[in-house]
Amino acid sequence: RHELEGISGREIVLNHGSLAHRILVIVLAFFMPELILFRAMREWWSAYTVVRKMRARGHTECSLAFGFFVNMNGICDGETLLGESFFAEHLNRIDASGASIRWDEVVQRINYRDQSNGVYRAVAFFQLLRIVTSTTARQILSIPITPLEAVTCAHAVCAASTYFFWLKKPNNVREPIDLRHFFECPSMKGSAG
Q: Phi and psi at residue 93, in whole multiples of 5°?
């Protein structure tokens, strides 16, 4: 289980890895972009699996952003971060108790945090598209291209593919969403009707 780093007021702050780990990922992305692409594919499949399980339970409002958020330990129950495996256990406990979570509000909160993400990805995608297009056009017109340009195009194709798989991935999961704020007890449902 992942432990929480600290609590500031009502928000829980999460430590997402050391600086050395982040540098390692950057170096891997630079020298072997295909490894990052496979990581993106694996993370996409894992997020899709979470969404598929939620939809099987009748929660159709859950999107890929929700699945990524769960897998990035963006959901907690106040004491424990709920990654994919702990999240499933927690759902079973909620179902057994007869209570429910207002998932539509949780998804809305996740989507609100992720609003500016598309602009950055679009700018990066068009920069990658420009590099690949200009190099391809030069090759078609029989204008010589250097090996560095060819390698840059290969990196650009891997980066564009990675952007595709991470298109719905939330940008910032530094502060997990506490499910306790979205909890509905069975007694609350009976008194509201």
A: -65, -40
